[in-house]
UniProtKB/TrEMBL annotation:
InterPro entries: TPR-like_helical_dom_sf, TPR_rpt, Zinc_finger_MYND_domain. The lineage of its organism: Eukaryota, Metazoa, Spiralia, Lophotrochozoa, Annelida. SMART domains: TPR. Residues 1-20 are annotated as: Disordered. PANTHER family: ZINC FINGER MYND DOMAIN-CONTAINING PROTEIN 12 (PTHR46533). This is Zinc finger MYND domain-containing protein 12.
Length: 325
């Protein structure tokens, strides 16, 4: 009969307790990281919706979680400082915004390995701050740095880079430099249009496969290609703002109106707001009457057929190839 060594038994119990403690700590850290991501996304979404006061508690919560996980001097705190800074700008509390952005800038400068993505967001917020102060030349310089770092990280035609173009367009708009402003708004529209077209095309393709093969086909969405809540709110804010600006112009350009309305129709379709998708789709069809690009016009028609299978009437059918009906 074997004899249990009390010291071995005690060692085993201690080991189990250590493993249990490590497991609890890992689980706690995992939950904290999830909360950091959730509160930051929520805060950024509220900013895009213009709810600056409501964004502050979410940003403060994300900052507390980040401090608990990373400490007081980590680069991981910077995104929370940036949300707080942007919220303060929106509330007109510019001195408070400067404090948050100064803290973020100091942390970035002392962190050589800081990513271009974080630098881009920092310079974008500094650009917004200087624009709010009326210092437009400095604002444009900061936004140029934003676009540079975003392009290095994501590419020049990525939706995450487009925000820099949009805010730069706003600064030129305030300076009454309409040619440059409209050019930048056009670039923003093109970027979002291409991204939304890709998402809609994928959705339409999946739907077609489901109809031909049956319910066994399931939709597989690459999260990196989709939109998170903050990006959805950004798209709504940016594309509607550009649409309103172009609608107010004395001489409207049909191709610009058609593209922005089609982009909005696709956006609301992805957001499952079919009423607005159809509304902007109809506006795109009307604008297409003055557009010579038949392929572009046909894309809008096919999109509308997909979201609304009822017949669509056009006052100018010469834009479409009737033999394909």
């Amino acid at each position: 009969m074997s004899v249990i060594n009390p010291s071995e038994n005690s060692s085993t119990i201690s080991q189990l307790r250590r493993e249990e403690r490590v497991h609890r700590e890992e689980q706690l850290k995992f939950r904290q990281l999830q909360m950091i991501e959730l509160t930051r996304t929520t805060g950024q979404k509220l900013l895009f919706e213009g709810k600056h006061e409501q964004a502050v508690p979410a940003a403060m919560q994300s900052l507390r979680f980040a401090i608990d996980v990373y400490g007081l001097a980590s680069i991981e705190l910077v995104p929370s400082y940036l949300i707080l800074g942007e919220a303060s700008i929106g509330l007109g509390r510019l001195s408070q915004a400067e404090e948050y952005l100064s803290q973020a800038q100091w942390t970035v400068l002392k962190t050589p390995e800081c990513s271009n993505a974080i630098k881009s967001k920092l310079y974008r917020n500094l650009g917004l701050l200087y624009a709010a102060k009326g210092e437009y030349n400095e604002s444009l310089r900061q936004l140029a740095d934003d676009i540079y770092h975003a392009s290095e990280e994501f590419g020049t035609d990525d939706i995450r880079t487009s925000g820099g173009y949009f805010h730069m367009g706003n600064v030129f708009f305030r300076q009454n430099n309409m040619d440059i402003s409209m050019s930048l708004y056009t670039q923003v529209t093109e970027i979002w249009y291409e991204h939304l077209s890709m998402l809609v095309e994928k959705k339409m393709s999946v739907s077609s496969r489901q109809e031909s093969i049956g319910p066994l086909v399931t939709e597989v969405v690459d999260e990196d290609e989709g939109l998170d809540e903050a990006q959805e709110a950004e798209a709504i804010q940016v594309l509607n703002a550009i649409f309103d600006i172009w609608e107010q112009q004395a001489s409207k350009k049909p191709e610009l109106i058609a593209k922005i309305t089609h982009a909005l129709a696709m956006l609301y379709f992805m957001l499952q707001d079919l009423n607005k998708a159809k509304e902007f789709g109809r506006k795109a069809v009307v604008a297409c009457e003055g557009v010579q690009d038949e392929d572009f016009s046909r894309n809008i028609v096919e999109f509308l057929k997909f979201i609304r299978p009822t017949p669509i009437l056009f006052t100018n059918m010469s834009a479409f190839d009737r033999k394909d009906d």
